[in-house]
Amino acid sequence: MTALRPLGILLALLFTLYLPSATAARSLVVWVYAHDDLADISDAQLNKDYFQHWIDEMRLITNHPIEVIFERNVPGITDITYSSMSAASLLAMFSNQSSDIDHQRERSPSYLNKSILLTKEPYDKSESGLLAGLAYVKQTTAIASLATFVAPAHELGHLFSATHNDAEVNFNGWFCETYTFETRLSLRSNCYRYSDKNRQNIADYINYYSS
Ligand SMILES: [Zn+2]
């Protein structure tokens, strides 16, 4: 009988070690580079207005923990003079610079990690309207302005494979647009969520890259 005891302990230990690695999901990390033109708005305020509703929504979609980390005063990124740049050039420049930072800080490349440049002003103002943000679809980098409370969630949605086509207008007492609805109409409100189809697109994307 006594000979079995060490085995019992060993099995218990293995079980204990095994269980967390099988169930604990790695974090989804979003680095938010707050442009210097947002110096007068605190991280807490930016998080409350532009990210907390997105985090709440993502928690309904995935069991992965979500970390939103604010970066400030990063030379070459948060001081880019972007007012005369097109959104496409700004996104390209940000992507290059942020990948250098990732390299310097020895962050392992992963499609579950995203970087977003947050600016006060929208882009491409000269054309038929304003562009509130831009993303490399299903990749890792995006830019978003404070033009609407949902601009970061819209672009993060694209990074996690949400599409315009699968977005929708819902009605719950009033019309609201889900996060990746393409053209905002000011008379409609924000739903502060993705459509059911986009929730599935996002869940599939996360499962694919975390398996
Ligand atoms: Zn879009």
UniProtKB/TrEMBL annotation:
InterPro entries, per the entry: MetalloPept_cat_dom_sf
Gene Ontology terms for molecular function: metallopeptidase activity
Name of the protein in question: Uncharacterized protein
Organism this protein belongs to: Pseudomonas alkylphenolica
